[in-house]
Here is the input.
Amino acid sequence: MKSLAHDEPHAASVSPVAAASSFVHYALAIAEVELRKLLRDPTEVFTRSVQPILWLLVFGQVLGRARAIPTGAMSYLDFMTPGILAQSVLFTAIFYGIAVIWERDLGILQKMLVTPAYRGALVLGKAASAGVRGLAQTVIIYLVAFLFGIRLRFEVAPVLGVILAVVLGSALFSTFSLVIACIVKTRERFMGIGQVLTMPLFFASNAIYPLEMMPDWLKGIAKINPLTYLVDALRSLMVHGGSSAFGLGNDLLVQVAVLAVLVVIAARLYPSVA
Here is the structure.
């Protein structure tokens, strides 16, 4: 079904300020709708938390005892915890696009596309709601890490930095998920592709081992993997003794740039899924 909405509503007849205000209004409205769904059924947030908790309980404890991975002055659990938070963000966000396919099948997507909302605002609103889902994961991982005695940083600035990084990471990977959903268009294909992508993204990053341990070919892949920059930012902000290999500003800038590109792509593809 082809969208009946104008591509960019009244773009030539309104001022840039009014257009920006309208864009933000539509994005917030979509985010509110998505968050209401989460509040009515929060079980997904908790079920998605099981796997990261198991990684900390089992994988982290075993490798921490083996001391097979050099982490400098940090314990392996301290080193691994930001990576597990990033993993939780990735695994939750990467399947977010299936909601678009459900909305198409239920006829909701077609109704949204004939509204005067900017397509980019529709995408950004969904990305913003995914960021809030990521914050729910953050609270759970922080609680588990605290119980394990991991040396977390609770100063205001680092905590705010973690929140920003998680929101950006969740928005980025949920938008990537929307792009996939717009291309494959069926739930079965989407789930298959989502399963295929999650583990390579995770293992081709610095989530559970430092970049220095990787062979050159894998290190090259890791450096173009957005998850690497999310982990790098979280590691410098979340735990005592953590540091950023690329610089915190660069980590956040890369995520913003990738998110912006994905929003543009998803906004162009979004109507095609209907």
Q: What stands out?
A: Residues 181 and 244 are 33 Å apart (CA to CA). The chain has twelve helices and no strands.
